[in-house]
Amino acid sequence: MTFSIVARDPVTGELGAAVASGVLAIGSRALAVEPGLAAVVVQGAAGADQLHAVLDRLREGNEPEEAVRAAGLSAEMQCGVVTPSESTSWTGDACPGAAGGVALPEVAVQGNLLTSTEVWEAARETFHTTTGPLHRRLVASLRAGQQAGGDARGQQSVALVVRAAGGTEPLPLDLRVDDHRDPLRELGRLLDVHHAHDLIASGSSVLHEDIDMARRLVDASARLPGDALLAGWAAVGALVHGLPEAALLVNAARSQTPRFAALCALRASHGGPLAPAWNKLAELG
């Protein structure tokens, strides 16, 4: 009733999982990524209990195939696992419709109740022919699977999780679209928001001395005009570095957040090199 992909980036060590389905909120129960351990998807007539059972077996030291067997999945379930060294894809004998999958080095793709076997083959091929960061390859694979027919019931939800090898990234990539007519398109929008907020999380401590960071925030705010948090940080960066967009960004943030002045004053009260700029924004707001 779903198609999915789990994968590893051999260069960065990132692990990731992505899933698309014609049911509500597939991401709430079908996928998990534990840095340094595995990316896992369990789908079909399965839920969070089966997902955690596979993870538990992996934590005990089982290899992927052993973990899937030991988890006691039913014949109506599927599972894909990628660890830092191995991968496996398993499909129960009673999975409905076009059902199956493939496991290759660093990637496993699987699906059931699909329009045809071309769905997981298209996803697998696209993963291997797409370049760029792992999240981009995973999303491209979902799109290819959907273009090949996808879930026989149509589209409703998608999810994407990518974690760094050490799990120390400032803003982990963990996104879900639970109910949408075009969930993959909405996932693309959320990825843009994630990248912008990741820029804030990773760059706010150096914003006062990094004009390039300020310009990147200004550009991101222009692409995402309804994001009040981003507009505020872009405004303070523009103000610190004398960028011409500062006044426009202040007005945008003020219109999006009624308590903008109070929030700026609160940030200023925390001190630090940006405190004078936050105070100035509080006065302007």
UniProtKB/TrEMBL annotation:
InterPro entries: DUF1028, Ntn_hydrolases_N. It holds the Pfam family DUF1028. PANTHER family: BLL2871 PROTEIN. This is Conserved protein, Ntn-hydrolase superfamily. The lineage of its organism: Bacteria, Bacillati, Actinomycetota, Actinomycetes, Pseudonocardiales.
